[in-house]
Amino acid sequence: MLASMFVFGGINALRNAPAMAPKAQSFADTVGPLIHKVAPQLPIPTDATSLVRINGLVHVAVGAALATGRFPRLAALILAGTLVPTTLVGHQFWNESDPQSRKNQQVHFFKNVSMAGGLLMASLDPDPGKKILPRRIKDRAAEAIDDLRS
Q: Which residues constitute the domain of residue 25?
């Protein structure tokens, strides 16, 4: 379920990259020169539209990996990492002057913070192929109680 937002949002970014690019322009202006400095030999596009598409592609591919259980801890960690620039670039509620827009961006900002927390928890789950962590805790607690009774 957590992955669905990334797959949906990634498809949206791939389809609408030119329209989303203006929000990412300042990020592209900052990161582009760093990418060319660190990896000058690699032909990595650093314009805003390309960065939106790359981010969208990562969200679709890694979101699908998380949804299907392929490398779930790594997928969750990658998605949590991509949420930092996505959130800071896409939901700058502090720059909004319209109260309704500010509130909307603030809701999305904190939704992303919450999702990052869930992804970080998923990346720490020691047995992602087994029952979800709260269920395993409940089962172990029940076993401990049974051991105490016997």
A: 2-149
